[in-house]
Design brief:
35% of the residues lie in helices and 26% in strands. It contains nine helices and 17 strands. It is elongated.
């Protein structure tokens, strides 16, 4: 295939799907990995797309570089979050040992939890208070308190996680993207999420549709490392993803 035709094909796929992996481009354009990576370098240098680890994203994709205060996020996309939280809570079974990440959607989960014969570990003070108020045995991680997200983070919290083995983990994420994975603005919080995922047998990321258009500076897991619970997929590029649960279709 001529280089100009190949470059046009890459741009068409990126513009249509907003993101694309190197593997997808190799298959669709019948080109080698080295050729695709060279083409992506060319298009990135021209400012026509943004090359990222494992593929490319559309130029002008939304970057979320600063955490938003919890109070400001609580009412954002609330109806979607309630649907997601209700379904996520239904996945908890008697005897589960659960990690519950800080976040507004994970907090809403607590209102829908029916099981009491479970144990929770969380890095959110408000989550711990609500869980304990329901009579559920709850542990809270020790470490540095981060006021913006009301989360416990830092080396001490990561060390605490190293002793646990969770049956299920429920997480928030600022960015959800097939290429860049799950991402968040701040390194300490990203490292905590990463460790908690590593200690969880089943991982779930709770994400309303708006998060699919976001990319944050620090990736804490690859896209295939967790099941995404959302109300609906944002576009056709995610239709073949087997790790997405659309609660609106259940």
């Amino acid at each position: 295939m001529l280089i100009e035709k190949r470059l046009s094909g890459i741009l068409e796929l990126v513009e249509k799907n907003r993101s694309v992996t190197v593997a997808e481009l190799m298959q669709k354009l019948n080109a080698s990995e080295s050729t695709i990576r060279r083409d992506l370098n060319t298009l990135d240098a021209q400012g026509r797309l943004v090359k990222v680890h494992g593929g490319a994203i559309a130029a002008g994709s939304v970057y979320s570089t600063i955490d938003t205060e919890v109070s400001a996020k609580q009412d954002m996309n609330r109806e979607e979050k309630l649907e997601i939280a209700k379904y996520a809570a239904s996945l908890i079974r008697p005897g589960d040992f659960v990690y519950l990440d800080a976040g507004t959607t994970t907090e809403l989960m607590i209102d829908f939890i029916q099981q009491r014969q479970v144990v929770f570990v969380t890095n959110a003070i408000l989550h711990a208070k609500k869980l304990s108020g329901l009579g559920i045995r709850t542990y809270i991680l020790g470490g540095e308190f981060k006021p913006v997200t009301e989360a416990i983070v830092g080396e001490e919290a990561i060390l605490n996680l190293s002793k646990f083995n969770f049956t299920k983990g429920f997480f928030g994420s600022n960015g959800v993207n097939r290429v860049t994975g799950f991402s968040t603005p701040e390194l300490n919080e990203a490292m905590l999420k990463k460790k908690a995922m590593e200690r969880s047998r089943e991982c779930y990321v709770l994400s309303d549709v708006s998060k699919f258009s976001q990319i944050a500076p620090v990736t804490f897991a690859e896209f295939d490392d967790a099941t995404v619970i959302t109300t609906k997929i944002p576009d056709s590029s995610y239709e073949d993803c087997r790790n997405i649960v659309e609660v609106s279709k259940l």
